TrEMBL record:
Domain RCK N-terminal: residue ranges: 18-126, 387-478
Organism (species): uncultured Coleofasciculus sp
SUPFAM superfamilies: NAD(P)-binding Rossmann-fold domains (SSF51735)
Lineage: Bacteria, Bacillati, Cyanobacteriota, Cyanophyceae, Coleofasciculales
Keywords for the protein's UniProt record, in alphabetical order: Ion channel, Ion transport, Membrane, Transmembrane, Transmembrane helix, Transport
Keyword Metal-binding attached: no
Gene3D superfamilies (alphabetical): NAD(P)-binding Rossmann-like Domain
One GO biological process term: potassium ion transport
Protein name from the UniProt record: Potassium channel protein
Length: 692
């Protein structure tokens, strides 16, 4: 996925016309995804299709133009100068790129979203064309496929600013660290944000559709996003240079201690247990080194005339390399040695010849094996609890790689041989899928992912895999929505993922000027990791993050002001301003609401009734908390605190109102949440009572 050079303003919403070039499977899915935004869609197709994969698709188009999208006359006919974005999604990368050049010449401002897998070329085009983003639709859902096959608590993962973010689904068990010890809102921290909480009898809801002050109990299902912080690196970076230098020398001294050296030697020796040849080489090297030291000392102390330490060292090396005749082959001897040292010299040559020869043989073997590398046998097929990946094309290989990164046993099935250097540690079965399935220990497999490039093969093999292992997980990759729906009905327990439907949501989101950095599946919805830059007349400008989160139904996971360091899991109290950067988790419906400024997924239907401030300082602190969390002016907050009891007139979202009450409670101010509907205290949410 290629990041665009700059971002188009959402304030240009008066341009409500979008052009799609290519109405194959991906193009039709893009039409459906874009139409959810309520925009005008024009499409160009070279040949009129005989039938539509999506039956009512013609009704979703405002205009269908038949012709070559690379021709300027056809683009002019589509009124490209009035188009806010152009989606180039034909099956030919060449056609897409040629059309991108033509479109840019006719409209210097329109946004170009191109289907292309040529990363280097896309980088260059992004620089030269501007307002350009590219995707490879078959690669976008790879993470979704891998996580579906993995069947673990991890629902999604992506990288932001070098940090890995994980979306986790966790069912609370008795004895869990949070069970009966925490309220739901207390799970939020600097590195974690709760997005869903459902009791044992409930179904997981959308973002923020949960009760903040509900206790976490056994059987509850939590969905949260967290940052996998590298604490060691973080602490090292935060340390001063003096402390880092001190720690460096401490590690050196600690590493030279006998206990540490002994442990390292034991670990190294155990690592060579599988190769006796390596152990022989190590023993030979140690013996040669010891003889070298002993010989140097003896020749230096017992020779006549006296020779230097360097000459004694050279003499020992010559003898170890079989040079006995070079030193003692001529008479009379130039060196006068005791008889026992003369005998030692002969033994040194014999022993050196043996052990140095072993080292030479090992070195020769290594050189030859690296020069004439034969195919190493792949690991054996796992016996149980493994994932079977059927189809090792680009998608299958990437899925297998991700599964291996998760330390998940996996075996790949392919009907064409792959290079031995490709995933060398992956067990691979080559041959017809019918016979290969029998060799893959399918009945004991954890799950099966069918990810070939042929839909019919995927359906056939998927049904065979289900018959062989009806209780295991099954994930089937498809490209047409019709087949996906039929398969989902036939195999209700399987996960049938339409690759183009998943990718189309990313294309549609990118068409509105947002940077889609990743996607994953959650509660049968596609969640887009979306990056925003705030413009002066943006629908998000001057809003609190609380209003963005609860009003539009998104989850802010990163906030950055200017060139400052980015903040993960930012506070709800931050007010967005021009130039700010924000990354959120959102569905395509949420993006549509942001695009049009339509808030109200959960209306502001709560107020805060402030009853009493227990101290003079509480009046000051309470006013600051009210202004900070509600977004009202500080003067309004001060007026409220001076005339207690009173009710804050600014309506709030429930999460926002409850958080304000908790903060007021910390400041020694009595307050409670009341609904706007009837202002009835009987249904109010009251915090724990304060002591006077």
């Amino acid at each position: 996925m290629q990041r665009q050079g700059n971002f188009q303003k959402r304030s240009q919403g008066n341009l409500n016309r979008f052009l799609i070039c290519g109405l194959g499977s991906l193009g039709q899915q893009c039409v459906v995804a874009l139409k959810e935004f309520g925009v005008s869609i024009v499409a160009i197709e070279e040949m009129p299709p005989r039938s539509w994969e999506i039956p009512d698709l013609p009704n979703l188009l405002d205009e269908l133009i038949i012709g070559d999208c690379r021709q300027e006359s056809i683009l002019e006919k589509a009124q490209i100068r009035q188009c806010r974005a152009v989606l180039l999604v034909t099956s030919s990368e060449r056609v897409n790129i040629e059309t991108a050049f033509a479109a840019r010449l006719l409209n210097s401002d329109t946004r170009l979203i191109v289907r292309s897998a040529k990363e280097n070329l896309n980088e260059l085009l992004s620089t030269h064309l501007g307002n350009f983003v590219s995707f490879e639709p078959t690669q976008l859902p790879v993470t979704a496929f891998a996580l579906a096959a993995l069947e673990t608590e991890t629902l999604g993962f992506f990288n932001l600013e070098g940090q890995q973010m994980k979306v986790v689904k966790h069912q609370i068990q008795l004895g869990d660290r949070w069970c009966n010890r925490r309220l739901a809102y207390e799970l939020n921290s600097r590195t974690r944000r709760l997005v869903s909480h459902a009791s044992n009898s409930e179904v997981a809801q959308s973002f923020h559709q949960w009760e903040p002050e509900a206790p976490v109990q056994a059987g509850d299902t939590l969905i949260y996003i967290e940052v996998n912080e590298k604490l060691a690196e973080g602490s090292e970076k935060s340390a001063t240079p003096t402390k880092r230098k001190s720690r460096f020398w401490q590690r050196i001294v600690k590493g030279l201690s006998w206990g540490s050296l002994k442990q390292k030697l034991n670990t190294f020796w155990e690592s060579t247990a599988q190769s006796q040849t390596e152990r022989v080489a190590i023993i030979s090297g140690v013996i040669v080194f010891i003889l070298l030291i002993i010989g140097t000392i003896l020749y230096s102390l017992n020779s006549s005339p006296y020779i230097s330490l360097r000459d004694a060292f050279n003499t020992t090396i010559v003898l170890l390399l079989g040079g006995y005749d070079n030193l003692f082959g001529q008479l009379p001897l130039q060196l006068e040695l005791p008889w026992w040292l003369h005998l030692f010299s002969f033994c040194l040559t014999v022993i050196g010849t043996i052990f140095v020869g072993i080292l030479y043989a090992m070195l020769t073997e290594k050189i030859l094996s690296s020069r004439f590398q034969f195919s190493k046998p792949r690991p054996p097929v796992p016996q149980q609890d493994h994932v079977v990946v059927i189809g090792l094309g680009r998608v299958g290989q990437r899925v297998a790689m991700l599964l291996q990164e998760f330390k998940q046993p996996v075996v790949g099935l392919t009907n064409t041989a792959i290079d031995s250097n490709v995933l060398p540690y992956l067990p691979v079965i080559v041959g017809d899928f019918t016979s290969s399935l029998k060799k893959a220990n399918l009945p004991t497999a954890k799950s099966v992912l069918v990810a070939t490039d042929d839909e019919m093969v995927n359906m056939e093999v998927g049904l065979m895999a289900h018959a062989a292992n009806p209780v295991g997980g099954l994930v089937i990759r498809t490209f047409e929505q019709g087949l996906s729906n039929n398969l989902a009905q036939m195999l209700p327990d399987a996960q049938v993922l339409c690759a183009y439907a998943l990718a189309a949501e990313a294309f549609a989101g990118a068409a509105f000027g947002e940077n889609i950095t990743g996607l994953f599946r959650l509660n049968n919805q596609t969640i887009l990791v979306t990056e925003y830059y705030i413009e002066p007349d943006d629908t998000l400008h001057d809003l609190l993050l609380a209003e963005v989160a609860y009003g539009y139904g998104v989850v802010p996971v990163l906030y950055q002001k200017g060139q400052e360091a980015p903040k993960f899991m930012p506070s709800d109290d931050i007010k967005l301003a021009f130039g700010d950067r924000m990354v959120v988790l959102a569905t395509s419906h949420c993006l549509r609401r942001i695009e049009h400024g339509i808030v109200g997924i959960t209306p502001k239907s709560w107020r805060v009734q402030v009853e009493k401030a227990l101290t003079e300082e509480a009046v000051f602190e309470g006013a600051n908390a009210i202004a900070r969390i509600s977004g009202c002016s500080l003067s309004m907050a001060k007026d409220l605190m001076k005339s207690l009891p009173g009710t804050l007139l600014s309506p709030l979202y429930k999460h926002q109102a409850q958080r304000l009450v908790r903060e007021l409670h910390k400041a020694q101010v009595k307050a409670r949440v009341i609904p706007i509907a009837n202002n009835s205290p009987s249904v109010a949410s009251t915090p724990p009572q304060l002591s006077p």
